[in-house]
Design a protein that fits this description.
The protein is α+β, with helices and mostly antiparallel strands. It folds into 2 domains: 39 residues, no CATH class; 50 residues, no CATH class. The protein is 18% helix and 16% strand. Strands 1-2 form a two-stranded antiparallel ribbon. A two-stranded antiparallel sheet has the order 3-4. The longest helix is centred in the middle third of the chain and has 11 residues. The protein is elongated, with a radius of gyration of 15 Å.
Length: 94
């Protein structure tokens, strides 16, 4: 199912060794993490990681180019949870 256009969520992943930001309000026990979603194509026999890397490497949309400037950490599927799957200006092979 496609993500809604410009979807962005705010998630609290719990207590952080870095403390919390007092501007986040009482609903966050740890650091607020901004989570964004995009619908991208997946080629046949392509892993989820490879599809994200291809999107960030090859797409010419403003969203893709801005996202490619920051590291990307997988939160789904569970097999990739916490893995850094993209580093800016670095080609990661899957």
């Amino acid at each position: 199912m496609p993500f809604p256009y410009r979807w962005r969520g705010k998630v609290d992943f719990g207590p952080s060794r870095f403390g919390r930001n007092p501007d986040d309000g009482p609903e966050f026990t740890g650091r607020r993490v901004d989570v964004i979603g995009r619908s991208i194509s997946v080629n046949e026999n392509e892993t989820p990681v490879a599809s994200v890397q291809r999107y960030l490497r090859d797409s010419k949309t403003e969203s893709a180019m801005l996202l490619a400037e920051r590291p990307v950490v997988a939160i789904w599927p569970d097999a990739y949870l916490g893995d850094v799957i993209w580093q800016p200006a670095q080609s990661i092979k899957s």
